[in-house]
Design goal:
Strand content of chain A: 15-25%
Radius of gyration of chain A: 21 Å
Number of helices of chain A: 10
Structural class of chain A: alpha/beta
Distance between the termini of chain B: 33 Å
Oligomer: heterodimer
Strand order of the largest sheet of chain A: 6-7-8-3-9-10
Shape of chain A: globular
Number of domains of chain B: 1
Strand content of chain B: under 5%
Order of helices and strands of chain B: HHHHHHHHH
Number of domains of chain A: 1
Helix content of chain B: over 70%
Chain lengths: 270, 246
């Protein structure tokens, strides 16, 4: 029942880079109109999952469907049409550095529409107003703080009124005020525009405040899923470690290494 | 090693086809191409003109010394013009272009890749080859022949400065010898060479930038490869074209 309402469906996905397996039978779905959080320790493949959803890479096994279409089977032209229905916020904003804030937000409109200049201008200013940066329209990306750049990138992501918004680590490197602003924007955009949102993050506190459903990835699979409250109860030791931020546990503090004392003694012998 | 070279040539050829396929769509936005002609061409003008002037002056000095031995110093204008228009103009302009604009093109595209700007375009359903690569390739292709022409003209002025002003060759003889010896075929040869060199240098720069490792070291290595490969390729192509024109 839930899967019929899914905008994104990931079934039995296996993906490896060389001998290193990133996903070993990943299953998840994203319901229309929801805010879905994808969490997990660093290196668990959260960004790889986004790249699979956007068709930038193809899974070796399994299926990824977006808006009912098998992403891996799409030709370039169809993939580009699909991408026009999705807004992606990059971790670092990825603003085009040779264009002003206004032109960055206008970029998708200029590329995909033939809107007259006055209409385009109004649309861009409206989106910049939404993220609170109408006054920064003439600035260049180099003149923006990290939080402002992220908000401009968000305005650019929503300028085509996408059906789905994907946020890749939207809170990384931001001060508490900027984090709060981004949290509020994700929530309000989801409600006002009726978009489906996927937020990839490991900021448990921020994401718990807005997510309808959360997935916790680890060891190439979904380790736990449910509402943020359910995850916080932490049924297993691994989930509890991640949600409470304990430095050592099933995910060890130390990278695998030979015995500490043996290695030190061997060095002094040498 | 040989296999790697063949694979690289194949990859560059396939990339060229992809770029050529996007050149017509890129022409819809001429302002992007004009901007690249300005960046790669107009901004290289000072170095091209200065180099052209000094190369022409050296050519004037050396040519005068050599021709004087045979009592035919009046042929200096002809020798300088043929040397500049057919060889030195296109070749040196291409080498300077690879050093000045090629590195800039390569590192700019490489940094766009490292900062996810190219990926962002892909995700916005905009082909970066059409929006970023094709305008830069066309800009270089158009700029190099224009720069080569300017290089040759300034070089001729330099040769004239030495030959006529310093060495007291009769100006009428200097210019008339040049006029009678240089034909349209020589100008065509220089033009074709500079177009080919422009295409080769621009292609290598955008290829290396587009495929650079998205790290500071990766972009640096790609930039170095651009200059080295461009220089070797220009000299190789020059030999082949010169042989073809004989």
């Amino acid at each position: 029942m839930i899967e019929n309402d899914a905008v994104v469906n990931v079934r039995g996905v296996h993906y490896a880079i060389g001998a290193h397996a990133i996903f070993k039978g990943l299953n998840m779905h994203v319901r229309r109109g929801s805010i879905t959080a994808v969490m997990g320790p660093s290196g668990t493949g959260k960004t790889t999952l986004l790249r699979l959803i956007m068709g930038q890479i193809v899974a070796q096994r399994g299926h990824v469907t977006v808006f009912g279409k098998e992403v891996a089977a799409l030709e370039r032209r169809e993939l580009y049409k699909l991408r026009q229905r999705i807004g992606l916020l990059f971790q670092n904003g990825a603003l085009l550095t040779d264009l002003s804030v206004f032109e960055n937000v206008a970029f998708p409109l200029r590329e995909h529409t033939d809107l007259p200049e006055p209409v385009l201008r109004e649309l861009v200013l409206m989106k910049l107003q939404t993220v609170g940066l109408r006054g920064a329209a003439d600035l260049m990306p180099a003149e923006l703080s990290g939080g402002m750049a992220r908000r401009v990138a968000l305005a650019r992501a929503i300028v085509m009124d996408p059906e789905m918004l994907i946020y890749d680590e939207p809170f990384v490197g931001l001060d508490p005020i900027s984090k709060g602003v981004i949290v509020r924007l994700i929530q309000s955009l989801n409600r006002l525009l009726g978009t489906t949102s996927i937020v990839v993050s490991h900021d448990v506190r921020e994401i718990s405040a807005i997510a309808d459903h959360s997935y916790l990835l680890a060891e190439g699979k979904v380790m736990a899923e449910g509402s943020p409250a359910e995850l916080c109860k932490g049924q297993t030791e691994s989930v509890h470690q991640f949600m409470s931020g304990t430095p050592d546990g099933p995910v060890p503090f130390h990278y695998p290494a030979p015995d500490y004392f043996e290695q030190l003694l061997a060095r002094s012998d040498a | 090693m040989a296999l790697e070279v063949v694979a690289k040539v194949g990859a560059v050829a396939l990339f060229l086809l992809r770029v050529l396929g996007q050149c017509i769509p890129a022409l819809v936005r001429p302002q992007l191409i004009i901007r690249q002609i300005y960046n790669a061409g107009a901004r290289s003008l000072v170095i091209i003109m200065l180099s052209g002037l000094f190369v022409g002056m050296v050519l004037g000095l050396q040519g005068y010394q050599l021709l004087q031995r045979f009592g035919s110093e009046s042929a200096l204008g002809m020798a300088a013009a043929l040397g500049l228009i057919k060889e030195l103009g296109p070749v040196l302009t291409a080498l300077l272009f690879a050093g000045r604009a090629g590195t800039s093109l390569c590192s700019e595209i490489g940094l766009m890749g490292a900062t996810d700007q190219l990926a962002a375009m892909e995700m916005m359903a905009v082909d970066p080859v059409r929006h970023v690569v094709a305008p830069r390739f066309l800009g270089g292709l158009i700029a190099v022949p224009l720069l080569a022409a300017i290089f040759s003209c300034v070089g001729l002025y330099g040769a004239q400065l030495v030959g006529v002003t310093m060495m007291r060759i009769e100006p009428g003889t200097f210019w008339s010898q040049m006029q009678s010896a240089v034909g349209l075929r020589d100008v065509h040869e220089g033009l074709i060479k500079s177009v080919v060199f422009g295409a080769a240098c621009s292609l290598l720069a955008v290829y290396e930038g587009f495929h650079a490792e998205p790290t500071a070291e990766g972009v640096g290595l790609a930039t170095t490869r651009t200059v080295v490969t461009s220089a070797v390729l220009v000299l190789l192509l020059d030999y082949m074209l010169t042989a073809a024109f004989l």
